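Q: I'm writing up a methods section and want to include an example of the input and output format. Could you take the sequence below and give the corresponding predicted structure tokens, formatted cleanly so I can copy it straight into the document?
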Amino acid sequence: MIGERITYRMADGTRVPGTWRHAFIRNGDYFLTDLFIYADGLVNCWGLVTLEEFEEKLRSGWVATELPDGARASAHDLAGWRFSEPRTWYTPELLLAEVRDTIDQLNGRPDSTGRCLAAVDAFLADRSEAKRAAARDAYLAIPETSRRYALGDMDNKDWPLRALVAGPGGSLEGRPDEPVTQKAYDSAVAYFEERATWAARRASRVPADGPEEAVAPAIHLYQSYPHKPSDNPGTDALRNDYPAPVEADGVTYPSVAHAYWALSTADVRARAAIAAADRAATARGLAAEAPRRDGWEQARTAVLTALLRAKFAQYPAPAEVLLSTGDATLVYDDADSAYWGDRSGRGRNWTGRLLELVRSELHAARAGIDHRI
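A: Here is the clean output for your methods example:
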């Protein structure tokens, strides 16, 4: 399962999402390491291999699912030990099935659990033995380690699923001597019918204070170098270097970027030069040559927030552009800073986040809501 173990690799300039899990590599001794699995079907097990090659690595024992008693093991520079009465729940087939599921999940496709639940829905819509057999086969195709989680119900686990696909008089998986009673089967059917009702309610539920995710698609605020205001600037008006003079400490600066860099230094002469700079890039260069103010790193986000508020309070046209972005995620390009910019997902995108904050405040003001509580 993917969970929170998210990673990626770059291939031909493209970001390929992936995830990782622990595994043992047998290279003489046994090494506890990370197995990286990517959406394009490649697996890194001390070398990038295709899924077919990964299966060969499993069959050969390079990716180990058997841990012999007394064998030496290592977690590289962390620790070393010998196995004593080791137990493992994996076979090559089981680990391969989990990796296949992970690749499906990374691509947003139904994995074995999703395919099983779809087969169950098909059976409940047409309760023929052929449909039940298909649902049973789909259940058995789920890796054993994942079956109890198939319904996402840790109270009942997968017993309703097992009872449903076995049918009255059939055997539950792992319990061949305990045939499913009619009562247990009816209870399983009722469980799935109630589950369908829950799902319908959940799908139609709207959180009391609005949607949990953005409705509008993300908007990319690309790097631009505007020299003068435009009658129709579009989202360029949201850039910090857009020519919209703002006042700070009694001085009017040509743009938010100018004001930000001037405030970053206590050097009076540098501030004057920054205020006179013809371009935001020049202002940044002048600031880079001057010393930063004490505590600037901790204060800079608050300073930029105040400057953005001043800009959009003073200029209705850029404020309308910002409001028109709705609730979209704002992805801000900044070639000079991974703190302020997104940097293809590697940066912190603080400028984009602060623009979203100011946008929310503008919406609040327009709705007559006092957010300064």
